[in-house]
Amino acid sequence: MALSPQLILHVLLVALLGLQSTVRADNFTPSSAAYYPNSKENGTGDGACGYRSFGATLNGGDVSAASVLYRNGVGCGACYQVKCTNANYCSDNGVTIVITDSGASGNTDFILSQRAFAEMGQTADAGASLLALGVVGIEFRRTSCSYPNKNISFKIDESSNYPHYLAFLILYQQGDQDINAVQLCETENLTCKLLDRSHGAVWTVVSPPSGPLSIRMLVGGGNGGDESWVVPLNNIPQDWQPGSTYDSGVQLN
Ligand SMILES: *[C@@H]1O[C@H](CO)[C@@H](O)[C@H](O)[C@H]1NC(C)=O
Ligand SMILES: *[C@@H]1O[C@H](CO)[C@@H](O)[C@H](O)[C@H]1NC(C)=O
Ligand SMILES: *[C@@H]1O[C@H](CO)[C@@H](O)[C@H](O)[C@H]1NC(C)=O
């Protein structure tokens, strides 16, 4: 059977239009965003993820609370590209934020730091105009977190009580994957046990083993890829201290 050029063109057009209506190549989801009214500039130091003061300045202060995307704490540390849609004010790329808190304002998916909210503007003036609007239409997508020159690190939370109670956070989570589970391993006999996520990005263990500890992370389930256990190069020292941060020696993709 000979295909006429007209028929070929027709088939191509139908295929192209079909693609356009079913798949958005850029994966953006429409929503709306507000900002923290009580933050002068940065995010909050008492966000639900438990980052404490670190949460205000993480990612240069480009942080956000999430409602549905908080996902009971699994969303803590995830990065999203958020761009507003008002063509008069909004830049093409918007801003990349890290989730540090849980919260909603009306139907918004995000409550940004004021700093991040204004950064969606084309200029500082446009940013000020956005702030004056309060709530704006946005589009967002999951994106990789980037912490140049940082390894994934474990911060021993101040609520810890050496040697009886260990609570820690995972900082500088690069890439676009989630940390779905955490194991605490004794390095001397390699016994591991799964930990509970206490809240947000905080993992806890009562009566932790003595000796150096290794914290393994099950990473995956973000924009793609299988889950796999990440084994740090460095251990948490035997005499870990509340408030201290320990470098894992590894990065996530
Ligand atoms: C906001 O965060 C930036 C970047 O870490 C920091 O330099 C600045 O001091 C912070 N501002 C306030 C008001 O906390
Ligand atoms: C592993 O070693 C630690 C420290 O020596 C000990 O407390 C623990 O009971 C050991 N676990 C097993 C399963 O042997
Ligand atoms: C990250 O870990 C590697 C391997 O242990 C180490 O060589 C490097 O200095 C660490 N990077 C930072 C910024 O600490």
Task: Please render the helix and strand layout as text.
Layout: H1 5-22, E1 29-35, H2 54-57, E2 63-66, E3 79-84, E4 95-102, E5 110-112, H3 114-119, H4 124-133, E6 136-143, E7 153-156, E8 165-171, E9 178-186, E10 192-194, E11 196-199, E12 202-206, E13 213-220, E14 228-230, E15 245-247
Parallel strand pairs: 1-5, 2-4
Antiparallel strand pairs: 1-6, 2-5, 3-4, 3-6, 7-8, 7-15, 8-12, 9-10, 9-13, 11-12, 13-14
The structure holds 2-acetamido-2-deoxy-beta-D-glucopyranose (3 copies).
One 2-acetamido-2-deoxy-beta-D-glucopyranose binds at residues 149-151, 233, 247, 249.
General description of the model:
The protein is α+β, with helices and mostly antiparallel strands and 253 residues long. The protein folds into two domains: 27-143, RlpA-like domain (Barwin-like endoglucanases); 153-247, Expansin, cellulose-binding-like domain (Immunoglobulin-like), CATH 2.60.40.760. The chain has four helices and 15 strands. The chain has helices spanning 5-22, 54-57, 114-119, 124-133, and strands at residues 29-35, 63-66, 79-84, 95-102, 110-112, 136-143, 153-156, 165-171, 178-186, 192-194, 196-199, 202-206, 213-220, 228-230, 245-247. The strands form three sheets. A six-stranded mixed β-barrel has the order 1-5-2-4-3-6. A five-stranded antiparallel sheet has the order 11-12-8-7-15, with no helix packed on it. The chain binds 2-acetamido-2-deoxy-beta-D-glucopyranose (3 copies). The site of one 2-acetamido-2-deoxy-beta-D-glucopyranose has 6 residues, from loops. One 2-acetamido-2-deoxy-beta-D-glucopyranose binds at residues 186, 188-189, 191, 209, 211. Residues 1-25 form the signal peptide. InterPro entries: Expan_Lol_pI (IPR007118), Expansin/allergen_DPBB_dom (IPR007112), Expansin_CBD (IPR007117), Expansin_CBD_sf (IPR036749), RlpA-like_DPBB (IPR009009), RlpA-like_sf (IPR036908). Residues 46-150 form the Expansin-like EG45 domain.
